[in-house]
From TrEMBL, chains A, B:
<dbReference type="GO" id="GO:0032259">
    <property type="term" value="P:methylation"/>
</dbReference>
<keyword id="KW-0949">S-adenosyl-L-methionine</keyword>
<dbReference type="GO" id="GO:0006260">
    <property type="term" value="P:DNA replication"/>
</dbReference>
<keyword id="KW-0238">DNA-binding</keyword>
<dbReference type="Pfam" id="PF01555">
    <property type="entry name" value="N6_N4_Mtase"/>
</dbReference>
<dbReference type="GO" id="GO:0003677">
    <property type="term" value="F:DNA binding"/>
</dbReference>
<protein>
    <recommendedName>
        <fullName>Methyltransferase</fullName>
        <ecNumber>2.1.1.-</ecNumber>
    </recommendedName>
</protein>
<feature type="domain" description="RAMA">
    <location>
        <begin position="264"/>
        <end position="363"/>
    </location>
</feature>
<dbReference type="InterPro" id="IPR029063">
    <property type="entry name" value="SAM-dependent_MTases_sf"/>
</dbReference>
<comment type="similarity">
    <text>Belongs to the N(4)/N(6)-methyltransferase family.</text>
</comment>
<keyword id="KW-0489">Methyltransferase</keyword>
<dbReference type="Pfam" id="PF18755">
    <property type="entry name" value="RAMA"/>
</dbReference>
<feature type="domain" description="DNA methylase N-4/N-6">
    <location>
        <begin position="32"/>
        <end position="254"/>
    </location>
</feature>
<dbReference type="InterPro" id="IPR002052">
    <property type="entry name" value="DNA_methylase_N6_adenine_CS"/>
</dbReference>
<dbReference type="InterPro" id="IPR040843">
    <property type="entry name" value="RAMA"/>
</dbReference>
<keyword id="KW-0808">Transferase</keyword>
<dbReference type="InterPro" id="IPR001091">
    <property type="entry name" value="RM_Methyltransferase"/>
</dbReference>
Length: 365, 365
DNA sequence: GGGCTCAGTGAATCGCAGT
DNA sequence: AACTGCGATTCACTGAGCC
């Protein structure tokens, strides 16, 4: 991209100051694995708005003021999202978080720029602030949007790890997590909360564990007091933070210095079979675990015979273990490893057991 | 409002056919108390989807949900929202419902037109369809947006009624309600579902009870099989439905003829009775109550290490707290919550103590 | 009738490595 | 870049049928 050598080096595990759009534009394109962004929505722009002709606002519909501040907010959103998009690797992803004040602008602009929404996720607060005046529903949630760089783009999703985190049931799009309070809530010198919207680490834990791998680079353009960086460090991910307020940067630096990374073994996470090395069925025959001519059976009584090249012959079909299984069942597809069984001591045993033996040997060897 | 007599007569408790924008424009301005709209979501489904058992998912592939581009969808949204806005009384309100495919377009356009968002509300589904391929989070919710006609406009909110409905606690912005299934789900002559996206009456019950008064006029421009009308009639509100598809209108007419005012029998069946889900061990890790890498011990001296995804690693075993406990004891099952202890001040403490802390938080929240 | 099993289903943007 | 073929993947609930 016409970038000088050296400029391509990412400032890992650092907090950059200044404007996030300028800072992002100075970093190399296609270099970031994940962006987590908690943009401000209360821009306090209203007082700065001036109508070009100084005319009076029509009192019938108070929407003018709102409309212009929306336009400014949209321009702000467009700029930082475009800068973020440029930084993302083709297989990277982005998370944004917002409330009903701004999340519809965020989601619409993500789609406008070609991001592909994967899920919207609801952070349900177990301890929200009540609605004191009793005029609305208790505002008990915020919304996160998770998006890949475009339709068809790959992305990281640690399905099994999240399923394990949720007691063996696949993780839903609504997450119950308490507000950041107590010892986790950072205080300034006066003992007041250091940042008005500090996010709980539990939220970032789930985001980073689920959608990044150890060693990935995570960028947060609205770093605040550094929750994204703290959790990234604990989980063995690299981070880059951008924050324009000096006081937040100072608190974040202090906080991050104290964070310890978890043991490497603790960061190893439950993986799916998809990540395991592939084993060809023919290898079982080659190694003598199954004999050519041996009969395999399905749970429902179908049979097929093993051939020397690792294909099967059923009644009127031949092909791979998967093809023959699918043909017999009249199904669009079939996992032959779990469908077919061989007989040992009069009992049917899934051939997947033999694959697992080979995989165990591969790990040791 | 300079309206001719006669033109002002609303077609109450009727289903109008044809295009909803034309129909709305033919009704008198400032005449409707509440609009509930469930517009097409513009799902962009590519191929077929099969369950792991190879059965095919019955997708929403109806022509009425197809739009050629986001731009065309936005124009559609702009048109019907403008027509809806014209109809609303100054103190009226609107509800729209959508999923991540379209709700950001809806919310942004509501704001563009000057509507004032009062809350976004999450319909949490107690029984959503799982994510069969394990590629994303289970899409377990939809989003409703509740908005008044503009900043400062009055609106109806029956705070105490909703509080009573919620066992004396302020109603939150996240509602757990099951899908519309069983006898409530309308069937066509062939016995198939009459409408692909019929909403549960419990959802409309909460909306109409909370944000209208008896005698109010409720308009639904995407009436479908008439859930809005049915609940309005039960609750003593007037309704106007607009529906393009003749088959849906016919079914709705039949359904509405059977509905009795204040007949709540169906609602009581469909209100969710499921308790809060169990606490996952992984949540203790996420929340920092236990640290990845930390060692747990059993009363008989066995040890295991906590991983970041809420699984344990023992000597030669990994899995859930229950699985690892059972493997170590050689038992068929094991209650990990009482089996495992963490060390505090040199003393072993059962991890169940931490679970009880989280349950207490959830009860309070 | 009660209790059990089994089959069915719900707004879904649902591969990927190797060649 | 397009093509080929392996082979991974589900939760809560309802209702019918059977004993």
């Amino acid at each position: 991209m016409g970038m000088m050598k050296g400029a391509a080096a990412l400032p890992l595990n650092a907090i950059l100051d200044g404007d996030c759009v300028e800072r992002m534009n100075a970093l190399p394109a296609n270099s970031i694995d994940l962006i987590f962004a908690d943009p401000p929505y209360n821009l306090q722009l209203r007082g700065d708005l001036h109508r070009p002709d100084n005319s009076k606002v029509d009192a019938v519909d108070d929407a003018w003021d709102q409309f212009d501040s929306l336009k400014i907010y949209d321009a702000f959103t467009r700029d930082w999202l475009a800068a973020a998009r440029r930084l993302l690797k083709p297989n990277g992803a982005i998370w944004v978080i917002g409330s009903y004040h701004n999340v519809f602008r965020l989601g619409a602009e993500l789609q406008n720029q070609g991001f592909w929404i994967l899920n919207d996720v609801v952070w349900r607060k177990s301890n929200p602030m009540p609605n004191f005046r009793g005029k609305r529903f208790t505002n008990a949630h915020e919304t996160l949007i998770w998006a890949s760089k475009g339709e068809g783009a790959k992305y990281t999703f640690n399905y099994e790890a999240l399923k394990a985190l949720n007691e063996g049931i696949q993780m839903r799009s609504d997450w119950m997590i308490p507000l950041c309070t107590g010892h986790e809530r950072l205080k300034d010198e006066a003992g007041d909360k250091a940042h008005p919207t500090q996010k709980p680490m539990a939220l970032l834990h789930r985001v980073l564990l689920g959608t990044t791998n150890p060693g990935d680079v995570v960028l947060d353009p609205f770093f605040g007091t550094g929750t994204t960086g703290a959790v990234a460090k604990m989980l063995g991910r690299e981070f880059i933070g951008i924050e324009r307020e000096e006081s937040y940067r100072r608190i974040a630096e202090k906080r991050l210095a104290k964070v310890r990374k978890f043991d490497r073994s603790a960061l190893e996470v439950t993986t799916s079979r998809r990540a395991e090395p592939r084993v060809a069925f023919g290898v079982l025959v080659e190694r003598g675990m199954l004999r050519p001519g041996e009969q395999l059976v399905s749970a429902r009584g179908a049979t097929a015979k093993v051939r020397a090249d690792g294909t099967l012959v059923g009644h009127d079909v031949k092909g791979s273990i998967h093809q023959v299984g699918a043909a017999i069942e009249g199904a669009p597809s079939c996992n032959g490893w779990t469908y077919w069984h061989f007989m040992r001591d009069g009992q049917p045993v899934p051939i997947d057991v033999l694959r697992q033996q080979i995989r165990a040997e591969m790990r040791e060897g």
